[in-house]
Amino acid sequence: MTHESHSVGPDYFDDGDRADAAAVAAGLVNALIPYGISLDGISLRQVCDECSALKDAYVISLGFLRLDDAREVTAKLKDHTNEFQRLHDTTANIQVGRQRPPSLPSLPNVAVVEAPSYSIRHLGRDGARPPFRPF
């Protein structure tokens, strides 16, 4: 009886599921950074196949949050949600031919386009869109 000789390298032990989970966790952390939210206790945990019904190989654990930390995160998310809602409501009320609400600055060369959801397009002198510039 002959056995073929196979060799393996270090990549034999690489865990693609963990790499995918790490990418998702990093994306979550990066998405929260602009809002001033830091998840210092975030980690990846491998799911036990024998003791869990979860089909994922890994889960993201957000760690432990003290009550004060949870209150702070909640307040920041609510503030941003309220601001997004205010901006949505303001832009939804802009109609063709109406003046801009006094709370918004007047912008030169602004065309308001009526569509299923209203959008504003800033046009340059040649009619081309200038590069995006955040407020």
On the 0 to 100 scale, the average pLDDT is 75
Tally of individual helices = 2
Structural class: alpha+beta
The parts where pLDDT drops under 50 for at least 5 residues are 112-124
Overall form = elongated
How big is the Rg? Answer: 25 Å
Helix content: 25-40%
Order of helices and strands: HEEHEE
Strand tally is: 4
Strand residue percentage: 5-15%
Ends apart, CA distance between termini: 75 Å
The largest sheet is: 2 strands, antiparallel
Question: Strand order of the main beta sheet, please?
Answer: 1-2
Question: What does this protein look like?
Answer:
The strands form two sheets. The chain has a two-stranded antiparallel sheet with strand order 1-2. Strands 3-4 form a two-stranded antiparallel sheet. It has two helices and four strands, in the order αββαββ. It starts with 15 loop residues before the first helix and ends in a 13-residue tail after the last strand. A hairpin with a 5-residue loop joins strand 3 and strand 4 (119-122). It is an alpha+beta fold and 135 residues long. Helices cover 33% and strands 12% of the residues.
Task: Record the SSE blueprint.
Elements: H1 16-32, E1 43-46, E2 58-61, H2 67-93, E3 110-113, E4 119-122
List descriptors.
135 residues, alpha+beta, two-stranded antiparallel ribbon, 2 helices, 33% helix
Task: Briefly characterize the structure.
The chain has 135 residues and is α+β, with helices and mostly antiparallel strands. The chain has helices at residues 16-32, 67-93; strands spanning 43-46, 58-61, 110-113, 119-122. Residues 112-124 have low confidence and may be disordered.
